[in-house]
């Protein structure tokens, strides 16, 4: 019985950055790129589509953006995408027009992904978008764009590959267009069909079920699945736009998200016996700020969940914390088991797991004063 790995990448802001760091660490410890690890496919929505698209394998079989490069450029990319305080934008999310311009986001995606169509992507990638005109989800699949339709492909899926062949950058820009913050994205496939797409999280905030079904469709119903989740845990947000409005939608996202990460272990996975193992890499921005504060890093510029403005120093602090959490913090055991499972499946040699890493607060601490001054205390390790 064949075993394949699938992944869900979803969620925006802090999630998008932490996903990139997780991918970088997995490359360091296993020697495999993310698209090589998840041979069963990657399903992405919202900000996770940015990482899923960037880390996909291009026509030459290499990632469009290497994991190390992706982490390196995220601080400057975040600043270009979020040109003003996102917390302020969220407070006006019920307005008549988007608060932030999409120009920076579109420019970043075009630079990173170029004009590569989905049909030229070598790995199995699915990006979810929300069709503004029909109010239904749209599936942008590299397999469908290549003309690969399995026996379990739903009847409503068009069988013409050209209908699925959009530019990868368009799919990413559309899926990450959070309503009220960014304007919806208009995109056209090679067959000439035009769609207006908004944030994929509206239709399917966590597409792990879709990734699982796509793998079973390709490899057969008796395939065993190992699932990874990077990002938001709840599967679907179904706001009543007319009655509730965007404020309530945003509130419920946050409440459900925090509830999920604090307790549920298999939040969105279908109860399928083929799913034999599950690894959850969720982060909550408030938790990050609290943990660093407990460690004495009161001057670290990590924002609370409602005050992310994309400053490079904030993103760098988030990257540092994520690395620490994977090597020494609460995700160390999950990361260790994940690397072992990947090694067994892909026959990779175990590397020097959990190499030393100084506390992420250290790089932000002020240097000791003149001779005779008491040096600052060492940070308390995160538990």
Keywords:
eight-stranded mixed sheet, alpha/beta, 383 residues, single chain, disordered C terminus
The H-and-E topology, N to C, reads as: EHHEHHHHEEHHEEHEHEHHH
How confident is the prediction overall: mean pLDDT?
Answer: 75
User: Which descriptor suits the 3D outline?
Assistant: globular
Strand content: 5-15%
Calculate Rg over CA atoms: 21 Å
Structural class of the secondary elements?
Answer: alpha/beta
The number of E-state strands comes to: 8
Helix content: 25-40%
Summary of the model, kept short:
The protein has 383 residues and is α/β, with parallel strands linked by helices. The chain has helices at 14-30, 34-37, 48-54, 67-81, 86-91, 103-113, 142-145, 168-175, 208-219, 245-263, 285-294, 312-327, 332-346; strands at 3-9, 41-45, 125-131, 137-141, 185-188, 194-198, 224-230, 275-281.
């Amino acid at each position: 019985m064949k075993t394949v790995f699938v992944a869900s990448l979803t969620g925006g802001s802090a999630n998008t950055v932490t996903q990139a760091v997780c991918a970088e660490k997995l490359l360091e410890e296993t020697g495999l790129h993310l698209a090589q690890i998840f041979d069963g496919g990657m399903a992405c929505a919202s900000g996770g589509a940015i990482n899923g698209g960037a880390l996909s394998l291009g026509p030459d079989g290499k990632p469009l953006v290497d994991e190390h490069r992706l982490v390196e450029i995220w601080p400057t990319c975040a600043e270009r995408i979020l040109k003003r305080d996102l917390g302020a934008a969220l407070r006006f999310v019920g307005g008549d027009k988007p608060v932030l311009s999409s120009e920076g986001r579109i420019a970043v995606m075009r630079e990173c992904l170029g004009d590569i169509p989905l049909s030229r992507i070598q790995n199995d990638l699915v990006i979810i978008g929300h069709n503004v005109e029909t109010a239904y989800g749209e599936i942008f699949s590299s397999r469908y764009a290549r003309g690969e339709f399995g026996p379990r492909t739903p009847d409503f899926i068009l069988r013409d590959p050209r209908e699925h062949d959009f530019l990868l950058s368009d799919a990413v820009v559309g899926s990450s267009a959070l309503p009220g913050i960014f304007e919806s994205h208009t995109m056209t496939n090679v067959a000439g069909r035009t769609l207006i797409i908004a944030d994929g999280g509206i239709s399917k905030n966590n597409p792990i079920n879709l990734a699982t079904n796509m793998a079973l469709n390709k490899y057969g119903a008796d395939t065993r699945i190992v699932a990874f989740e990077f990002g938001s845990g709840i599967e679907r947000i179904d706001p009543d736009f007319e009655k509730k409005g965007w404020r309530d939608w945003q509130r419920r996202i946050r409440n459900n998200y925090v509830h999920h990460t604090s307790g549920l272990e298999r939040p969105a996975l279908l109860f399928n016996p083929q799913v034999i193992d599950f690894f959850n890499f969720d982060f909550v921005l408030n938790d990050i700020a609290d943990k660093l504060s407990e460690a004495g890093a009161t001057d670290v510029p990590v924002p609370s969940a409602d005050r992310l403005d994309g400053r490079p120093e904030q993103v760098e602090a988030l990257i540092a914390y994520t690395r620490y959490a994977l090597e020494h913090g609460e995700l160390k055991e999950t990361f260790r088991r994940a690397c072992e499972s990947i090694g067994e499946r892909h026959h990779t040699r175990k590397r020097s797991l959990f190499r030393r890493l100084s506390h992420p607060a250290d790089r932000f601490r002020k240097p000791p004063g003149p001779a005779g001054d008491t040096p600052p205390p060492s940070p308390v390790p995160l538990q």
